[in-house]
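User: Hand in any protein.

Assistant:
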Amino acid sequence: MEDARKTNAKAMANAIDKAWQEFLSKKSKPKNEEEKSKLFKKFIEGYNPQLSALFSVIEVNAMLSQINLLVTGKKYEEALKELDKISKLKLEDNTKVMVQSMKISCTIALGDLKKALKMTNDLKKSSEQLAHFHMAQIEAKQGNLEKALENINKCLKIKETFDSLYLKSEILKVMNNKEWEEVREKAKQLEHETVERIEQGAKEHGLKVKKKGEFLEVD
């Protein structure tokens, strides 16, 4: 089964490459990589609309990965500029919500809590869970730890994620609540299980996952 998937994927890649080379032979040679990239997008759109949609998703995911690196490096203003660029693209609804959530986190990190609060209220229409998460961030920044804990518990009641569990552990730690260690361990366990699921899914498609810093890459 796995060999068949690899064979089909290779055959598809070869067919696309052959069609791409034929497409290029009928065009003027691109002057640089940017021109070549634009030509490739035009080629994919004509070759297969479904494939074009797939490449769009891959492109957005690659951009989000780069933004995650900016956030990790605390380059929040730069990250917001890149997120604004992504917002102008045609995105799926869940990606739109993710981008908005990332914008709010960056805005909170920059200390503009008034703007972050307005953005969080707007987010409630799309994701009550993430709205509670960001309200917990905002309340914690203002030193309102009880309200922060209340919001993160509402968030966790809807869905448990590594980020929400980690934030709860941080709030509890500042409150000198010994339960923070138990919650932190639960967050780590959830992260481990998530990585295992990604690795298994990649393996089923003949791919490998490797750790790169805080992120995962698929080969």
Remarks:
- The longest strand covers residues 209-212.
- The chain has ten helices and two strands.
- Residues 69 and 213 are 9 Å apart (CA to CA).
